[in-house]
Amino acid sequence: MTDTAEQILVVDDARDIREPLGQYLKKQGFRVRLAANAAEARSIVETARIGLVVLDVMMPGEDGLSLCRWLVARGGPPVILLTAMADETDRIVGLELGADDYVTKPFNPRELLARVRAVLRRAPPPPPAFDATRRRFAGWTHDPTARKLHHDDGRVAGLTSGESRLLALFLDAPRTVLDRARLLDLVAGREAKAYDRAIDNQISRLRRKIEDDPKHPRLILTEWGGGYLLAADVEVAP
């Protein structure tokens, strides 16, 4: 197993399911994290790079469907539900919420493994690793750690995490047309499938923060039929 292996989070209140499943997935080459409840799972997802969640529906406290809703709303990672054989309603609701697949209990670990690999093959690529480098362009300095833009004239603009990631992609490839579909995958992830204009709205919000006239942009240009382009030179900030 290497540090580049996909990391799977198994969430199940039943220790006799959670721990053996975790060991099985490790033997198949995955890195594995375990959580006994939704609160533990939320903490792990917010601090670790998780590639997929195997999630039990029936848990005390916050149940798996509620946690699934939260995972989907934040744009990932993909989810495979573990449901009881008789709970067809839970399976339907889970899929409607945005779960990627389900396996009924009791399950064959080899079947679950096959579904894990299938979902991972369908999943969009993860966002690029975080880069804390501060860079300058057109009088602005991008601070990705603070998610802020500072202009030479003293203006400061706050950025959402999505806007900051989007700007970083443009700063990685100045004066290069970035394909709209690729931007959708890198910035919006799974949200792009549900909301096709997510990238356009983020571009519009970013323009309002960095352009002198957002209706007639001179920095982030639209290439009709192609994508978007940052029309500025970029340098590492001192």
UniProtKB/TrEMBL annotation:
Kindly report the protein's main subcellular placement as a broad class: cytoplasm
**Source organism, top-level taxon:** Bacteria
**Localization, UniProt:** Cytoplasm
Q: Which UniProt keyword terms apply here?
A: Cytoplasm, DNA-binding, Phosphoprotein, Transcription, Transcription regulation, Two-component regulatory system
Asked whether the UniProt record includes Cytoplasm among its keywords, one would answer: yes
Write down what this protein is called.
Answer: Regulatory protein VirG
Q: Where is the OmpR/PhoB-type domain?
A: 132-232
A single GO BP term for this record reads: regulation of DNA-templated transcription
Domain (Response regulatory): residue spans on this chain: 7-120
Chain positions found as 4-aspartylphosphate: D56
Q: Name one GO molecular function term.
A: phosphorelay response regulator activity
Q: A Pfam family in this protein? A: Response_reg
Q: Which GO terms describe its cellular component?
A: cytosol; protein-DNA complex
Family annotation (Gene3D superfamilies): 3.40.50.2300, 6.10.250.690, Winged helix-like DNA-binding domain superfamily/Winged helix DNA-binding domain (1.10.10.10)
Read off the PANTHER family from this record. DNA-BINDING DUAL TRANSCRIPTIONAL REGULATOR OMPR, REGULATOR OF RPOS
DNA-binding region (UniProt annotation)? 132-232
